[in-house]
């Protein structure tokens, strides 16, 4: 694998995964995007837009911005276009299928870059961030959002649940990605040559007093993501079927009346030096 070849998306491209991504984006929109808005008329490149789950929230917050959304998957782009068109038919979005290491755009073409849940799936995230500087104008901003599976803790605690989560971490690492990348954003972005790098945690905490988060995040986002790698985990002999089933059951237990769940995302903003 070369550093410019994207790795396989560990979660797959099923309809179930598309729904999960939508649930995640909608549930976390306020937490992750409340402070992201771009000036009218500015040009923003969303790198790795996937099925458009984040795109709709970018468009909603900045309706007069010109967005360009890029993904390597033609099928995902088709879903993204349909999703955005259905919700915002007047949205100013241009769609491109492209490898982020080989973007078909002129130097300094964009005022801002937005990269959400992309670096974790790359074998060479720092090189990707460096390559993206070419299309960002001097003084333009970069926004990056990533999670970190090492930040997951919950009640009731369960070694089986942690083992199931670790299966996903190991599978992603085996394919060249990094499910623990959130904690690395500051050194990655500074190492890629950006200035004024600021990284802040965005914490999700769910308990019975926050039913929307329990359902939207604990059940439909995080636990659903772990559940989706069952066959791969068993085929790789990372865990026994019995221990897997107990781990997933214990994850669901954290969404019960007396359960709690915590997870941290990291949001970074940086500037392309002049």
TrEMBL record:
<dbReference type="InterPro" id="IPR050508">
    <property type="entry name" value="Methyltransf_Superfamily"/>
</dbReference>
<feature type="domain" description="Methyltransferase type 11">
    <location>
        <begin position="45"/>
        <end position="143"/>
    </location>
</feature>
<protein>
    <submittedName>
        <fullName>Methyltransferase domain-containing protein</fullName>
    </submittedName>
</protein>
<keyword id="KW-0808">Transferase</keyword>
<dbReference type="Pfam" id="PF08241">
    <property type="entry name" value="Methyltransf_11"/>
</dbReference>
<dbReference type="GO" id="GO:0008757">
    <property type="term" value="F:S-adenosylmethionine-dependent methyltransferase activity"/>
</dbReference>
<dbReference type="InterPro" id="IPR013216">
    <property type="entry name" value="Methyltransf_11"/>
</dbReference>
<dbReference type="GO" id="GO:0032259">
    <property type="term" value="P:methylation"/>
</dbReference>
<keyword id="KW-0489">Methyltransferase</keyword>
<dbReference type="InterPro" id="IPR029063">
    <property type="entry name" value="SAM-dependent_MTases_sf"/>
</dbReference>
């Amino acid at each position: 694998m070369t550093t410019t070849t994207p790795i396989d998306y560990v979660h797959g491209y099923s309809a179930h995964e598309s729904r999960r991504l939508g649930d995640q984006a909608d549930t976390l929109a306020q937490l992750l995007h409340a402070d992201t808005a771009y000036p009218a008329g500015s040009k923003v490149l969303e790198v790795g837009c996937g099925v458009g789950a984040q795109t709709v929230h970018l468009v909603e917050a900045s309706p007069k911005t010109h967005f360009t959304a890029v993904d390597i998957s033609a099928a995902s782009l088709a879903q993204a276009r349909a999703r955005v068109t259905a919700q915002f038919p007047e949205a100013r979005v241009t769609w491109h299928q492209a490898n982020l290491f080989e973007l078909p755009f002129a130097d300094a073409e964009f005022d801002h870059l937005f990269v959400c849940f992309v670096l974790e799936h790359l074998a060479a995230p720092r090189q990707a961030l460096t390559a993206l500087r070419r299309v960002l104008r001097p003084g333009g901003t970069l926004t990056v959002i990533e999670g970190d599976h090492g930040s997951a803790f919950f009640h009731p605690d369960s070694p089986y649940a942690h083992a199931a989560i670790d299966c996903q971490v190991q599978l992603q690492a085996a394919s060249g990605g990094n499910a623990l990348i959130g904690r690395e954003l500051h050194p990655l972005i500074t190492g890629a040559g950006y200035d004024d790098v600021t990284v802040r945690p965005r914490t999700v905490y769910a308990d019975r007093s926050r039913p929307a988060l329990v359902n939207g995040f604990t059940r439909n986002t995080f636990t659903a993501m772990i559940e989706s790698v069952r066959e791969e985990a068993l085929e790789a002999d990372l865990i026994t079927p019995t221990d897997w089933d107990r781990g997933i059951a214990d994850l669901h237990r954290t969404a019960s009346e007396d359960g709690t769940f915590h997870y941290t995302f990291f949001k970074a903003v940086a500037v392309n030096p002049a």
